[in-house]
Protein 1
Amino acid sequence: MPPAYLLIALLGLSTAAYYFGRRKAFALSGRAEGAAKLHSRPTYHGALTALWCGIPALLIFGFWLVFENQVITHLVVKELPEAIRSLAPDRMNLVINDIRNIESGSFASQAAEPAIQAAADHYHRLRSISNHALAAVSIALLTAIAVLVRGRITAGLRARNQVEAILTVLLVACSTIAIFTTIGIILSVLYEAIRFFKVIPITQFLFGLDWSPQMAIRADQVGSSGAFGAVPVFLGTILISAIAMVVAVPIGLMSAIYLSEYAGKRLRAVAKPLIEVLAGIPTVVYGFFAALTVAPVIRDWGSRLGLDVASESALAAGLVMGIMIIPFVSSLSDDFINAVPQSLRDGAYSLGATRSETIRQVIVPAAIPGIIGGVLLAVSRAIGETMIVVMAAGLSANLTVNPLKAVTTVTVQIVTLLVGDQEFDSPKTLAAFALGLILFIVTLCLNVIALYVVRKYREQYE
Amino acid sequence: MNSPIDTAAAPEPQRTIDIVNRSLKRRYRAERRFRFYGLAAIVLSLMFLALLFVSIVAKGYSAFWQTSIRLPIVFDPAVIQQDTLVNADYAALVREALFKKFPQVDGRQDKRQLTALMSSGSVYRLRDMVLKDPDLVGRGAEVWLLADDDVDMLIKGHFRRDLPEAERRVSDKQIAWIEQLESEGRLERRFNTTFLSAGDSREPELAGVWGAVSGSFFTLLITLSLSFPIGVAAAVYLEEFARKNRWTDLIEVNINNLAAVPSIVFGLLGLAVFLNFFGLPRSAPLVGGLVLTLMTLPTIIIASRSALKAVPPSIREAALGVGASKMQMVVHHVLPLALPGMLTGTIIGMARALGESAPLLMIGMVAFIVDIPKGFTDSATVLPVQIYLWSDSPERAFVERTSAAIMVLLAFLVVMNAGAIILRKKFERRW
């Protein structure tokens, strides 16, 4: 039985268990008195039966699927001929992949070796045994528990309390997923990054000026030696983010000021959602726009002015990224400007200040911590933005601050290093995780500072 | 605000009102300037938005029409034998029809150029026709067949006819043939059903978005079925049950942080944990859905919490007052009232997940996949990644395909967001 059908069957059986338990409860209560004799309403007895049956069955189902592959692979490898088993680990992985591909039939390999073919058959047999065993075990367990729980249902059973206790545990478990995600990110990125730093010293990575991650495939190959000095990559990221902020901060801030202080109700009702549409557009669309519309225009203008503009200039990517970030800056600034108490405005007006003087000398200074928090969040957004730079910025790691040249960014490098074939023992692949670690740490710091500032600011006027 | 006064030049003491009046003109000018900057900023951002949409639509709308050529095809029994219906040489039928249409064409070079007018997909079209109706064999029929993408680009005006021949992808002879076909009414732009029903292809005229749309559908189904229950449960716990202590503070900080972590980092997590550690299949909607679940969870939790916060405490107190347990109070009274707000947040989170591509690049959903995925573990790609892949293709025809795919993606997003807005308008309640 394929796992998907088994899952449906298990859910169906749990539902059946619900009615099974409820019927028992009704039967206990008897006709005359109704449900009054019971401690809990019969639905709770049903729910209790269903939970007791469903949760263990699903747990077994999940664990089985997680470990099934490893166990079967281990068994298959043990049966392989000695010649194949003594291969190096990376070659071994290829063989295992071959076996799996043949087994799943997705891959008509050119006349597989008999040993491999036999292993694939063996794999297939084991998998079908495993599937059947899983189905048998989980269904048997479910039924056994259903009967057991049914036997324990009595009029005095505190079914509601037990159901609620189980539900509370489930709720707590769900809320901790955020923590596990963070731990997962840190562990996975850190683990691979440490492996990288064992090969390439961390100082060389952080302060080296040369980035060319192509490794030599053969030992005697000339040229691609693999240099992992990430400074040009960091500089490119900073350059593009800076261009984006130069576009986004003035436009975002001014439009927020105009919308909250000057605009009438009608303009506000139209313009505010429209500007926020900019935030809802997928970044891949911006990337396409940057690469095919903005970049050629900039290059044309540049050549008309006699400037030498790269076709993948930092300016195009930064400009479009700035457009994407406008709504972040404007909606956050809008919130903070609106949070400034009216009394401050009234005070400034009563002293004879014009509206713009009030805004520039009273409201903006009062809102500045919040605005800075918003801008920091926008910066972290710009640094982590991927698709625009992948499509519109280059791959060549130039050490330059000239916005007309092509630069590369952290995210672009992560994508190019990890898309395609990956070898998890080559520094080239691991470098992506080192870059990911830096990216995570930097954005984390920016976010923590920004959230702290914003929270402090909110408290100030509450 | 008081301008500096030259005290030496002023013989008698001035009244404040004079100083103010003198500076007033300058201050009003500054006021007008400031106002203008604000308006300019809004106009500028709206212009960007308009430019974006106009450029995409202008590039992409033509992809919904595709050039077809009507050819009198003879289903020659000599070519199609009864036992080889599936793999008969249908290309020969197309060639025959073309040579009969243009009997003056001679020489290998010219003949090859002539057959290059037709898409390589016309073979499958003819095969499907014969398989559906085997009686066609031995008869003739007028059949609309897809033209090659170069012909299509020429007809749509993306290749200029006045360029020197060497710089064109379509030769002078081919243009003459095309013009002849056009004058006979054998060449037409017809609605492009291939684009909406096919999977990816290396040939632009055969490439479609349906494979990517199905991939997106399976991915989002996983995301929705995991992130909605988990997100709501987490929000309920944090908002209704949890005591405020270090532990819940830690969870809160984590959720707020995860909401701002770059999406590509989630891709790294998916690669390291789901693919390398658990050994789940690459390029599968299952893994894509899991990664997007982790990514959208914070959005849904935050939205659900604010929906729960909006339910007034009097409801809770009333429920507890008539003897409901805390769980009953939440499940029977608070959740139903907060559900519209939670759903709105979920739809917005799903819309974000639909547009997301960076983390999916990490887990191998960028492969070139022709087949339309049928399940959660088939190799698949999603709509935004398809857009990324096409935007990299060198053929001119893929530019309009990319824009058209963007239009499809934006259409889905508009529908989802409109749904969220309607939901909010309909169920919004002010207490």
Note: Chain B has a mean pLDDT of 87.
Protein 2
Amino acid sequence: MSAYFDILYQSISEYEYPVKEAFFEFIISPCECDSQSLVEFNIKTSTGPDVFTTKNSLGFNQIRIRPAGYFKTFKLEYSAKVRKEELNNIDNLRPSAHEQWAEINSTNFYIENFLYLHTSPLTVIPKENQNEVLIYRRSSDLLEYSLELNTHIHNLLSYEKEVTDVSTTAADVILLKKGVCQDYTHLFLAMARSNGLACRYVSGYLDQGSSYTGTGGMHAWAEVYIPGMGWTGFDPTNNCRVNIQYIKVAHGRDYNDCSPIKGVLLSLGENKTYHLVQVSQQQQ
Amino acid sequence: MKDSIQLTGNQIFSSYQVEKNLYDEVFDQTGKVKKYYQKVLSLFNKLTLQDLKKLNEFARASFFNQGVTFAVYSDNMKGVERIFPFDLFPRIIPLKEWENLEKGIIQRNRAINMFLYDIYHDRKVLKDKIVPSELIFSSNYYLKEMIGFTPPGKVYTHISGTDLIKHKDGEYYVLEDNLRCPSGVSYVLSNREAMKRTLSKVFSSYNIKPVHDYPEQLLSMIQSVAPEGVDNPTCVVLTPGMYNSAYYEHSFLAQSMGIQLVEGRDLYVDKNFVYMKTLHGSKRVDVIYRRVDDDFIDPLCFRPDSVLGVPGLMGCYREGNVTIINAPGTGAVDDKAVYTYIPEIIKYYLSEEPILKNVHTYRCELEDDLKYVMENMEELVVKPVDESGGYGIFMGHKSTAAQRKDFQDRIKNNPRKYIAQPIMSLSVHSTFIEESEFFEPRHIDLRSFCLMGKGKDFVLKGGLSRVALKKGSLIVNSSQGGGSKDTWVLEG
């Protein structure tokens, strides 16, 4: 069974004084992966047609723009159609817990996946706060453990906007006990990694026809490597496993590898950026 | 028993002592001058002290006129421009000895490039457990941005500086590999220039291998690694700016190669290409010889607060539209802990015995080595693995009990950060000492310069012989009060 989604993305930045020179990198377009393909993609910007893409070091599309001339407003808009396949239910294909751990503890696994086994600046928790983290390992089956961790974090934190920002670390979140999707995800990654699991940060979109939290802008969730199943998605914000309604953009060690906009500009004064995201499932 | 020999009959050598437990480059153990030094020594012997002082002034003027300076970073002398102290007595390496060194340097650097390619691709060397994977992955200089990317010609270390010493056994040993755009080559060229201006006659009676072709060799290497399909590449030298300690060298190299010297603000990225702003509009740039550290080359990829780099540069590099020299991420190998594995790395990739020796190294992260280091602090030099320029080094034989205790604590707190080596007795070389107005033996090392391009290996015939001017000192870095000598590779 497949489903089609329409995505409309707008980003508008307004500057107090004219910008003389700027360079932006966006990681916002749906990626192509096993269960997802891009059927249509149209992009335009307010400063002209010159939009270039490259792959970042992890293989995800980076849209690169150097707006020509002076500007006070910069607007980027894209529309896309994404085809998603229903994920196969392969939970039962995984080997025993003992074999799972043997695989993820092997040298070769470490060499191939060290990026997602090591903690990163945003997913590190200092020793004195690790008690809660390390105690938390009731189940040794990786799927069961990941589901338990997912629920544990969901219950530990309360969803609240504007109490955290993009520099908030898992160590901050564990004390603050509130935040948004990227904070839930960073804490998930920090705990899973300190328990020896390989896991990665995922950015993307959620179907707005669903009742999930976090559909207003870009969403974030985690993927854990489970032997026999491969990379498996968990969304601690919504206490569920990732399904057909999750549209992936990119993954990385943490938010820094997936941040939707990065830029350098020569300008003075204040600036404001607004985002608008619309995701809807096409009625067949 | 006497452990030194007094030279006789030479005016300005009259207080020269040949130490029995050190290797003297000029004199043998009986105090007899070595064959290849005879001519040059007899020249110096004819000079009076006044002559020599005058020549020294000439040499100094030559450096002033060439504008050769460097800046020192230390607590009380922030950024003061200085002349690199220069000694007129040249260091001579016979051609036969040099040829072996050259082979060894190329062998070492070829293996290092294969190792870099491997750790950024299949990582076979780690899977085969030749080098511990943790050592590479925990390095701050190992860049995930380089994983899976192949630079033109698989060359990573286009420019490298291998530091060598001669031990009392008369053998050369590699002390370290400098793979992050090492500096110093401009001194080699200006030392030679100063020698020519000062002692022009000597040059006609010796068959000295030239060094003046270095800028030409450097440019042709830079052009050889231009992006695919670019026939007449535009190449630039990227400098952090005039406040950098090696700014003189950056401008010297750009000028002598006849290419532009640029700062980050002179470059920008558009349509996945790099452009340079010029008086005549924009010009596409194909190869960047950067003297800016990895961390600073692209604020969108690495340190976001950097203003020394070019936003978006790494994307153009990964697209293959521009070549960066040296490739980012080479620092993962010039780590002092990785150094200890280089002999194994050479055997692994080339199936050859290493031509150049490594100094035995104790890795504090290994339990047995740590124990040995803790118990033998007085016999060892302890170095942090990730600092350059001779900063933060512990010298066991000159330490006080308190210093030893302090360093033991530091090592215990972070064993991964330290390695230790037996104290190598660097060879000594006659050097004119202004305070005593005599020639005296001083410790020296040798920084060699190697270029690697597409189908091109080149080692500069000579190099920078650095001198520790303080009596008994083993630290030759210019930032720590070292000087230098012209280095002659000599035929016959």
Note: The mean pLDDT of chain B is 90.
